[in-house]
Amino acid sequence: MDETGTNPIEIEPCAKRIRVVFGDRVVADSVDARMVWEHPYHPQYYFPLADVDRALLVDSDHRSSDPRMGTATHQTVRVGDREAVDAAWRYPDSPVDALRDLVRFDWAAMDRWYEEGEEVFVHARNPYARIDVLESDRHVRVEIDGVTVADSTRPRLLFETRLPTRYYLPHDDVRMDLLTPTDTETSCPYKGVATYWSARINDVDHLDIVWSYPTPLLDVAKVTGLLCFYNEKVDMFVDGRRLPRSGR
User: What domain count does the chain have?
Assistant: First the structure.
């Protein structure tokens, strides 16, 4: 599947119980949700009509279209005084028969999503994505503008499907005197919440060039508190070989 929207939609059953919460109400609760790949990176959850609290949905005049899925009719999710406008939709006349009786919700417009009993953040997790964290004795050295800011022979390598290898380094092997913490945070559904540092080299600030997961999700616990530089923004040498800026 590509990003152009020209390839067929892929649909698979989901074995997990999936719940969506808005306000203090469960809007959808299903053990029969579908994973629909609208793009290649991760699926969207679609719910059978029977598993949606339709009393919380208010009809809207808004319509949207997708060349593969057809025309969507939207509904607003309303709980008490709160509304998520046009945040639910379905394709009742879709050329893809399996979509016609399914409802999709705007992930960001809802308050919480759960896979079984665990809250999931950012987007649905791809069951075909894998993350491995391995201890290594490779020699990793990081330069920024010709200045060595990290030098380690005890990295932990994080391998994530379709992404560059990331090299997580102990604080003791990083020039912390060159780094300043920032207020930036990002979230990953697979790893958790990351915090950031900027590097100041030769009076030039390199913003948010280093990150760390202080309390990562269990699957990547081995990177807890370690520091990682953007391969794409620094000069990184692994066993003496300079990595391309793409990080691959």
Answer: 2
